[in-house]
Amino acid sequence: MESGWSRDQAGKWTAPSPIEPLVEPVATAPKVSPVEFKLLFTAAERVAIKGARAADPMIEDFFDIVEDPRLTHVNLGLQSTQDALAYLEAKGLITTSRRQEILAGQVQ
To answer: CA angle at residue 90 from 45 to 74, to 5 degrees?
Structure first.
């Protein structure tokens, strides 16, 4: 007999209640306003990115979207946001650890 069984006064055995598996909460990626998104970068990173925008259409395109007045939030979980930050990392404008901090929504 497995552990957890119990016996009542009449001698009847009762099986233990099934153990429900713990449900891990699904982590949702932060959503930040466009201004909050820019504040996730350090001042030095923002200046470097701004300087690179004129010469790099990929950076210019991404920040054009971020600066669009119709945009209400930047979803840090979107693949396009993650790809853009990976691109900034590849260009040497942010480090790997900074990319991870930005994606976690950690303000500097």
So the answer is: 60
Q: CB–CB of 31/103 below 8 Å? A: no
Q: pTM of the predicted model, to two decimals?
A: 0.73
Instruction: Answer whether 13's CB lies under 8 Å from 57's CB.
Output: no
Question: Do 66 and 37 meet the contact criterion of CB atoms below 8 Å apart?
Answer: yes
Burial environment of residue 106 by CB neighbours within 10 A (0 to 12, 13 to 18, 19 or more): exposed
pLDDT in tens, 33-77: 999 999 999 999 999 999 999 999 999 999 999 999 999 999 999
